[in-house]
Task: structure prediction
Amino acid sequence: MGELEPVVLALTSDEGYFPGLYCAVASALSALDPARKVDVKVLDGGLSQPSRDTLASLVERIGKRARLDFVKADLSIFDKATLDTLRQDLKFAFRMLYKDRRSGIAAIITLGLCIGANSALFTIVQSVLLRPLSDTPL
Result:
């Protein structure tokens, strides 16, 4: 049987998402056959040198036949992918609430009442059902 095709892991991260990147690489390398070649490509949106070194030591330790490459990315890509859409969604939501104030007020009151009812029910369930269970020996 011939050699297996290499697996390519293409991931993207900046310093804020480094823990997720680390876990994803560790999980993928642990799950793959150690005899298989793996190319890990990280689209780097601002990783610090210690984070790069940590990831490189992880790849060396777990992936015997893995190769790690960092590809520099423009930071505006990360802003566009994360913050711009959130900003646009919030602007749209406030614009719609302002445009139709009655619906906005109804939505806010409904949300407040639902959160309050949920908190009250949880308090009752906790005090009546859950707390007495913790006092009984097993």
